[in-house]
Amino acid sequence: MKKILIIKPSGLGDIVHSFPVALGLKYLYPKLELHWLVFSKFSGILETVDFVDKVIYWNRDSGIKEYVNLIKQLRSENYDVVIDLQVLFRTAFLGYLIHKKRIISTSYVRELTNFFVKPVAKFDPDLHAVERNYQIVEFFAKKEKKEVPPAKKFLPWIKIYDKQKEFVKKILNYDGNKKYIICSVGSRGKHKIWPTEYFSELITMLSKHYTNLVFVFVGSKEDEDKTNDVIKCLCKIDYINLVGQTSLKELCAVVSFSTLTISNDNGVAHVSAALDKPTLILFGPSNPKWFYPYNEKSTYIYKPTKCSPCGIKTLCKNNICMKQVIPLEVFKHIKEKFDKILQ
């Protein structure tokens, strides 16, 4: 096997959950040239890894001319294998046009992509997204009659370089005696967001119980309003607001300094777990079986309702599954699971 293309253009957490596929393939084929097709918006996350040989940018909003040029560019690479880890119509059809035959995919097949992909396994609703993706590696390992380590053995999947660490120390005014708590209060789906007043209450309780905590808010520009709603309710609490001020590469470096990450189910949470940092994810609409933080240091809270999990695409306007997770409950959970590292 000489050259493979992975198609996984979005989103941040989903791309991070795909990193073990690249790591596993490189383990199987040490001389492999591995390419990754990604939406330009998310390309920064691939700057944090050293196991992808070439990143190919896909402008999601481009016209038909650029789409045709992208197909021509990818066809010229003459890939031995094309792997679709997104398995939506736009990615499966593109892969089919590139490879001129059905391409390899995960078992999570959607949007009538069956005509263009060959799943490597039957769909198992109890598998974590990382494990479902990693079936690709296990498929090739079986063909090669080789053993591969489990995905967790490759942790951390994201690499932080010394130059990035120095950058973060400056923007945090880093103090080794303090403990930095990463807070990510937004999410791509509004129904996945824990109430901002709950975040404020939790932060207040933590700051009263533990000394030397600094709360660092991170996220995209879309999260600015929610973050400001949290911050305006804080009184005499040490915090740093970096929301909308970092690139994806810089975001990863900031998270690498965390003692604990507290987050809704979003990309920041999964970056934290991929860095092998202690992480607490608050679940509601999304399925924790598929998306729990995939490292041994982390945990999650999930209180199911009759209508949860309902997924990303929902018309829910009253996310009771998130509202019923009260701050005191989260505080007690943090004391139980993370007390030693916060002391």
Describe this protein's structure.
- This protein has about 350 residues and is an alpha/beta fold.
- The chain folds into 2 domains: about 5-155, Rossmann fold; about 160-340, Rossmann fold, CATH 3.40.50.2000.
- Helices cover about 35% and strands about 15% of the residues.
- It is built from 13 helices and 12 strands.
- It has helices at about 10-15, 20-30, 65-75, 90-100, 130-145, 160-170, 195-210, 225-230, 250-255, 265-275, 290, 320-325, 325-340, and strands spanning about 5, 35-40, 55-60, 80-85, 105, 115-120, 180-185, 215, 240, 260-265, 280-285, 300.
- The strands form 2 sheets. It has a 6-stranded parallel sheet with strand order 3-2-1-4-5-6, with helices on one face. A 6-stranded parallel sheet has the order 9-8-7-10-11-12, with helices on both faces.
- β10, α10 and β11 (about 280-285) form a beta-alpha-beta unit.
- α7 (about 195-210) crosses α8.
- The protein is globular and about 60 Å long.
- It starts with a strand and ends with a helix.
- The relative contact order is 0.12.
Topology:
Blueprint: E1 3-7, H1 12-16, H2 19-28, E2 33-39, E3 54-58, H3 64-75, E4 81-84, H4 89-99, E5 103-105, E6 117-119, H5 129-144, H6 162-172, E7 179-184, H7 196-209, E8 213-217, H8 224-231, E9 239-241, H9 248-255, E10 260-264, H10 267-274, E11 279-283, H11 288-291, E12 299-302, H12 320-323, H13 327-342
Parallel strand pairs: 1-2, 1-4, 2-3, 4-5, 5-6, 7-8, 7-10, 8-9, 10-11, 11-12
Helix pairs in contact: 2-5, 3-4, 6-9, 7-8, 7-13
